[in-house]
Amino acid sequence: MRIYDIITKKKRGGELTADEIKFVVDGFTSGIIPDEHMSALLMAIWFRGMSSAETVSLTTAMLNSGESIDLSDIPGIKIDKHSTGGVGDKVSLVVVPIVAACGGIVAKMSGRGLGHTGGTIDKLESIPGFRTSLTRNEIIEQVKQHGLAITSPSSNLAPADKKIYALRDVTATVDSIPLIASSVMSKKLASGSNAIVLEVTVGNGAFMKNIEDAIKLADTMVRIGEAAGRRTTALITDMDTPLGYEVGNSNEIREAIDALKGKAPDDLNEVTRAIAAEMLYVSQKGSPDDCKRMVDNAIKDGSALQKFRDMVKAQGGDASVIDDARKLPQAKYHVAVPAKETAYLTSMNAEEIGLASMALGAGRAKQGDEIDLSAGITIMKKPGDFVKRGEPCAMLHANDTKKIQDAQLILRDTFKAADKPPKKSPMILARVEKDRIERF
Ligand code: URA
Is 184 near ligand 1, meaning CB less than 6 Å away? Predict the structure, then answer.
């Protein structure tokens, strides 16, 4: 078998066999296939796509490139959740404690931020002392005791995905349905849970720019999960505007804690409530309506916040940040982004806000870059709000004035306004399960 022939076959629109895909994944992971060959193949896949059989073979080869976690020592249905990424996406930080408070069992492997999207692990590291690398035994003990853990995966969990993702990131091949589906599902299948809820984001801050592609991606992932014997469902959520008001790391932790105290902004509340209820539903905790009620109660009675506290303590973090957010990392400079005219805000480009947050130091341009946990953006006005010229639309937080100038440049056209407010649309756009697609 020769990689050159495999690239040529895909370039011409051919269907790769499972053996050819395994040859590529194993060869690239072990370093025998160089970046230039893999880049050419990824671009051919980007243009030509993959059949369902190819996507399943790619997922399987990536899953088998490393170890899988065995969670069978923990009794009950273990539920996992994954988002295809967004700006201001602190959903996992809110839903994992809610689900645990309602009797669900969550051993969640989360990632770091890359490009314009943030990562749950980076955000958690802004809590002083919080350990994000747990051993398998620590995960199992913590989940048995408290019902939840959020940790970064070991370096040997789907290592093919790490290498392929890093190359996709620099070859403009991230936004491909078979490549995203195999990347997400290889990690989720390796993480050992019995059930998976996927959040597929759509909009200018997401990899999927339109609802049809988002549904196709969700359906592809649901099929892969179900074929592997895991109950899998997906919700399609809006990512045209950042979720909530905070984008960054420590400021997103603050907003997530506020959400657990019952003070979530409407959009964050709608998404977290729906995803937490879906996770409970696939964990067989009750009907969809029962699950929604359980979620509301867990916020109201403080049990979700208590679960977050339990997790922070169990993972070595300073739980006093929950009562005093000033103990989280704080930036030195805070500079407003003023509105250009007096009008209704109609839209803001989530991707640009993510890029500006990265420029302030909150994200990394490439894997391994250091990030500034105190940097980020507070959005002060959302679409539908009336703003006066000069009034702040956002506040930039950073420790370096040059970085603030870079962010200001990125944001020069981000906030759009008009005479009339925009039509309000729902945050949950569709739900996908095996053989069923519901649009809202
Ligand atoms: N999230 C992933 O884990 N992989 C992708 O390819 C895109 C989003």
Answer: yes
Tell me if the domain spanning 330-418 has CATH number 3.40.50.1370.
no
What is the whole-number distance in angstroms between the Cα of residue 366 and the centre of ligand 1?
A: 15
Ligand 1 centroid to residue 179 C-alpha, Å: 8
Longest alpha-carbon distance in the chain = 65
Contact 84 CB / ligand 1 (< 6 Å): yes
The CATH label, of 3.60.150.10, 3.40.1030.10, 2.40.10.10, 3.40.50.620, for the domain at 79-324+428-439 is: 3.40.1030.10
pTM: predicted TM-score of the whole model, two decimal places: 0.94
Q: What angle do CA 173, 175, 177 make, to 5 degrees?
A: 110
Instruction: Express each pLDDT in 293-325 by its tens digit.
Output: 999 999 999 999 999 999 999 999 999 999 999
pLDDT digits (tens, 9 = 90+) for 85-96: 889 999 999 999
Cα gap 402→147, rounded to integer Å = 44
Q: In this predicted model, what pLDDT tens digit does every residue of 214-235 receive, in sequence order?
A: 999 999 999 999 999 999 999 9
Q: Is 31 left (phi over 0), alpha (psi -120 to 50) or beta?
A: left
Residue whose C-alpha is closest to residue 211's, from 421, 425, 434: 425
Give the active site residues. 82, 161, 168, 183, 187
Q: Are 124 and 132 in contact (CB under 8 A)?
A: yes
Nearest-CA residue for ligand 1 atom 8 is 84
Instruction: Report, as an integer, the average pLDDT of 365-371.
Output: 78
Q: Find the Cα–Cα–Cα–Cα dihedral 218, 221, 227, 232, rounded to 10°.
A: -60
Domain 3-63 in CATH: superfamily?
Transferase, Pyrimidine Nucleoside Phosphorylase; Chain C (1.20.970.10)
